[in-house]
Amino acid sequence: MSDFPGAPSAPRDGRRLRVLAAMSGGVDSAVAAARAVEAGHDVTGVHLALSANPQSFRTGARGCCTIEDSRDARRAADVIGIPFYCWDLAERFREDVVEDFVAEYEAGRTPNPCLRCNEKIKFAALLDKALALGFDAVCTGHYATVVVNEDGTRELHRASDMAKDQSYVLGVLDERQLAHAMFPLGDTVTTKDEIRAEAERRGLAVAKKPDSHDICFIADGDTQGFLAKRLGKAEGDIVDEAGNRLGTHEGAYGFTIGQRKGLRIGHPAPDGKPRYVLDISPVTNTVTVGPAEALDVTALTAIKPRWCGVAPEGPGTYTAQLRAHGGETEVTAELVGEELRVRFTEPVRGVAPGQAIVLYDGTRVVGSATIAATERVRTGAAAQ
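Above: the chain's sequence. Below: its structure in token form.
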């Protein structure tokens, strides 16, 4: 009997698996690796070196990918009693995540680098290398659940604890990747405080380490400053819906749809209400602002769909999540050619091209796609 409530009690499918545990240096991945060992699997820990110059990435609580994190991961592996390696994936990370992030902002879109990292690094580059070395599965500290059906197929579901659910950033995983994914934290109703307490009982020094947050590869958390260094300053106009010039900016890439703060418009709107970013045009380097109601989105088109299983056929009713920490909203969706057409039951706000939309059927993740365009109640403010 395990001394740790919620820890798995037997190997998945009754088999002892060779598991590669991705250890970021944080508490979640450390406990996930320990639970995989306790479940009877043959576990090896690996820390991904994602920066060519780790000192340029964040330290302490500000993020991951630091020398400190690799040392924390190694110490955790020593306590757990598993082999540990550090793999250099910095070049792959730079190309597939960092450069993609910059290119998306330059094109006026708002990307989510965590989804791209899960898709391209943790469950592509890492998984491919793991399988080539004879491992059966990759284990991470994500809060999500893989359900194995009677026919052997697998489904991705939300974590039991909705407050910690991370299935949104895993919505890019396809059926093959799910077949080799293990999330030991997702199928138990376990709070973060309980995970920390479990880590402390296991003797893991990361038990009290603060969570990382924001974007791991932006050293000081200043996204606009990071982009300015990469793309350079490019002064342009801030205009209203009628095209009237209200102010200037130093780069359209520094704005996101729905943004309210930091517009630096010198005078208030005629009605005295706040204004929000409605559209970003990289071609003209123009940012359009307007009232909150102009942000109401009724439908969208998304591209590059990825399905956690078989692609759905015909129109269907689902719930959708539009950001990592957002709620669900009811939609109808249909795959038309290579495009996903989505219509919302009620208008939603804060929807920007470049974001991911993840569809759910109950707790099951159906799949995800990248938002390409939106339709709004006020068509004059429609995103391009």
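The longest strand covers residues 364-376.
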